Amino acid sequence: MNRTLWSSGLALAGLLVVGVAGAGCGSSTPAPTSTAGGTPDVSPAGTVADEDDATSADLKAHHRHHHHGGFAMFILMAADTVGVTPEQQAAVDKIKGDLHARMAPAHDVEKALLNTLADGVAAGSIDAAKADAAVAQVGAVAGQVHAATADAVNQLHAVLRPEQRAALVDKVEAQWMLWRNANGDEATAHEHEAGGRIAHIQKELNLSADQVEKIKSGFAAQMASVQGKFDPAEAEAHMKAFGTAFTADQFDARSLTSADGTNAHMATWGATRMVRFYQTVTPTLTPDQRTKLAEMIRAHANHEHGHEGK
Amino acid sequence: MNRTIKSLVFATALPLVATLAVCASPSVAEAQYYRPPPPGYVASYEPVYYNGYAHYYYGNRWYYRDHGGAWQYYNHEPAYFGGYRGGWEGRRHSWR
């Protein structure tokens, strides 16, 4: 009887050890306070993996053609999906309208550049001097966007709750990652792969394998000759500074001194890359393909942010 | 005597085996299912706010970023999200 009791006690103790060990061996992190019946069973995750799904493909196509607003454009796009309460809606809509209006000069010079490219593609030759002058304009005006939009961004901070500010920063960061993925120098070697700009026009224009190969090697050569490569470190640092500042209780966009340089460099690089791409593509196309590509570029030129849908 | 030895073996081996089983399963599950939302997804969906965080329904899980910036998910869906799962796709923004 004693032996049975002792054995049972030992087994019970062993099972208690299992319970303690089982609770400790998992990788659970301290659970957040539950306010709505949530099960506080949280597992740690890692970093964001960039994958090329249909949604990011649409966004990358957007970021390949619209560089004028720099981070201010990312903020405007983030405000579209941050999620606001009915009480906040009118104020946020007004702020978005102000942001859009303040970016109009940058939008206009970019539209002129896109129309120059569309004209050149349709004609079979892009006017290099005109395109380069338009790129310089895009860069110059982008460098003034931050100051023009600072008040509106400050108002957005004031309207949003802390968790919405954090979400907006996540979304701005996501837009930046997509922009970099679409326009960074490292993307050049992968443009023919799924989600790349060569792959995109291959599908849209029904390019032959020979055309793809010519564009691939030609674009790589074009980009290798571009002076002053884009350094993502500047934009990474600005992204970090914006994230820290915007999630704080007190915020003043004018304190972000890295914005003007970052926006100007991003816009200049992105626009240059876009021009070099279409300069490479144009001589390889048939007349019908040129007509269709020109229409595609004009569609981007006429794109008005905020007119997309859910 | 034999019963005592059997009891001792049972009492020590069972907890050890059970401990290994408990510890091994979650890591396999996490490796298999963990995939936080990619940038295009975060950029395009309107999140659900819960517990002070923006949540995204992705890969049949609700994900959020903690204050350190790491993505976290729930092993068991909090009841709060039940009403949001069905209408989640309606929260997607089209960029076309």
What's the topology here?
The complex is a heterodimer of chains A (310) and B (96).
Chain A: H1 2-25, E1 42-44, H2 54-65, H3 70-81, H4 86-102, H5 104-123, H6 128-142, H7 145-159, H8 162-183, H9 197-205, H10 209-224, H11 232-246, H12 259-281, H13 287-301
Chain B: H1 2-33, H2 39-44, E1 48-50, E2 53-58, E3 61-65, E4 71-74, H3 82-85
Antiparallel strand pairs in B: 1-2, 2-3, 3-4
Question: Would you write up a description of this structure?
Answer:
The complex is a heterodimer of chains A (310) and B (96). Chain A has 310 residues and is an all-alpha fold. Chain A is built from 13 helices and one strand; from the N terminus they run αβαααααααααααα. Chain A is elongated and about 55 Å long. Mean pLDDT of chain A is 85; it is low at 9-40 and 43-52. Chain B is α+β, with helices and mostly antiparallel strands and 96 residues long. Helix content of chain B is 44%, strand content 19%. Chain B contains three helices and four strands. Chain B has a four-stranded antiparallel β-sheet with strand order 1-2-3-4, with no helix packed on it. In chain B, a hairpin with a 2-residue loop joins strand 1 and strand 2 (53-58). Chain B is globular and about 35 Å long. Residues 16-32 of chain B have low confidence and may be disordered. Classes of the chains: A mainly alpha (310), B alpha+beta (96). Chains A and B meet through helix 1, strand 1, helix 2, helix 3 and helix 8 of A and helix 1, helix 2, strand 1 and strand 4 of B. Strand 1 (42-44) of chain A pairs antiparallel with strand 4 of chain B, so a sheet runs across the interface.
Helix content range of chain B: 40-55%
Spans of chain A of 5+ residues with little confidence (pLDDT < 50)? 9-40, 43-52
Strand percentage of chain B, roughly?
A: 15-25%
Major sheet of chain A: none
Distance between the termini of chain A: 73 Å
**Largest sheet of chain B, order of strands side by side?**
1-2-3-4
Question: Which pair of chains has the greatest number of interface residues, and how are they split between the two chains?
Answer: A-B, 67 and 58 residues
Q: What oligomeric state do the depicted chains represent?
A: heterodimer
**What is the typical, i.e. mean, pLDDT of chain A?**
85
Count of DSSP-assigned helices of chain A: 13
What general outline of chain A do the C-alpha atoms trace? elongated
